Amino acid sequence: MAKKTLDDLGDLKGKKVLVRVDFNVPLDKKTGAVKNDRRIRAALPTIKHLLDAGASVIAMSHLGRPEKATPEERANLTMDKVAAKFSELLGTPVKKAANEVVGAAVTAAVAAMKPGDVILLENLRFDPREQKNDAEFAAAIASLADAYVNDAFGTCHNDKDASMVAVPAALKAAGKPRAVGLLVAKELEIIEGLMSAPKAPVLGIMGGAKVSDKIAFINVLLTKVDQLLIGGKMTYTFLKARGVDVGATRVGDEEVVAAGPLLKHVGTKIVLPVDYVVAKSDDLLQTQVCEGPIPAGFEGVDIGPKTIEAYKAAIKDAATVIWNGPLGWFEQAAFARGTQYIAEAMSASSGVTVVGGGETAEAAEQFGYADKMTHVSTGGGAFLAYVEGKKFQSLAQIDDRA
């Protein structure tokens, strides 16, 4: 059933709206500065919509893993620099409420808000109750607002986070409305469209490292696509599972086991690279293109030129393309050609092109093609989980449209 959206919240003049955003952005390890603001930019349409409607906005997000950080690393995980970047992009002053997630200082700051004001709460994970879905913690946050908006698709699959589940539940108990933001609404619309009635022919492209992490996603895709092109480290998992020597490429036994049941689709729906770039493990400057077994001491780092051309041709002929996972070690310029050329081919496609979040989204943006795709998801794990058909407790808390 469709979820309520911003248009279903009614008159927001003078109302305080709590917005769960996904500002879990990459930071410079030394300075704590925001390195990539894509997730902040993705939330701006919802924030601006609420402000234009006369509301004040209380934004909240987690940032990194402070529970595993050193004291120095934890100091960089405050929301101060995120608030500064948020303010810059929004073009409106944004202040951090306090140095704690909830408490007297936060309550006072929110009470003083006027229509058009924006406050960002401290890193939710600075309070251990956030990841325990703690009801008391959630009630304290929920008491700050008149309405709740989930615009954090990238964390929708985190069903134990209080900000995603217990907070909207507390607003429901208080009779306050809950809706999805513009970003989440678009994500759901795009993915549901892909799964229900994608325009044929449908092409899937899978990269990344672990088959085992994406086995359910792959099995769903195989029911929807005409072809599934494989790249990235998955290539060598499939090769090893077929008995091909992969040289020094590290492939875990559990990955080979996971790939086993999929081998029956190779040559029909699943397409493996015909060639690949390999590099000397102890000297990455020594590279060559291989077909078949990989020489001893070499490891696979990218798809090869023949494969790139074949995959580009497949993309050109497809009406719908779904891509998840880089095709090679794209962070290294020497091994980024496969990923870059696939992104370029998708950007030139006249069909529907969807990028499935995470590293794939980073790659599309790094090469300058993100804006030329039909949709670039903000959620890696959430994208996979939703396609797999998993039910999100976070979305279950949102009011349904009648």
From TrEMBL:
Binding site for substrate: D22, F23, N24, R39, H62, L63, G64, R65, R125
The keyword Transferase belongs to this UniProt entry's keyword annotation: yes
Pfam family membership, one: PGK
Annotated InterPro entries: Phosphoglycerate_kinase, Phosphoglycerate_kinase_CS, Phosphoglycerate_kinase_N, Phosphoglycerate_kinase_sf
Domain of life: Bacteria
Cytoplasm listed as a keyword: yes
Catalysed reaction equations from the record: (2R)-3-phosphoglycerate + ATP = (2R)-3-phospho-glyceroyl phosphate + ADP
Sorted UniProt keywords: ATP-binding, Cytoplasm, Glycolysis, Kinase, Nucleotide-binding, Transferase
Entry's localization field: Cytoplasm
Pathway terms, separated by semicolons: Carbohydrate degradation; glycolysis; pyruvate from D-glyceraldehyde 3-phosphate: step 2/5
Signal peptide: none
GO molecular function, one term: kinase activity
Positions contributing to ATP binding: K214, G300, E331, G357, G358, E359, T360
EC number in record: 2.7.2.3
Main location: cytoplasm
Protein family (similarity comment): Belongs to the phosphoglycerate kinase family.
Quaternary structure note: Monomer.
Protein name: Phosphoglycerate kinase
Organism whose genome encodes this protein: Gemmata algarum
Organism classification: Bacteria, Pseudomonadati, Planctomycetota, Planctomycetia, Gemmatales
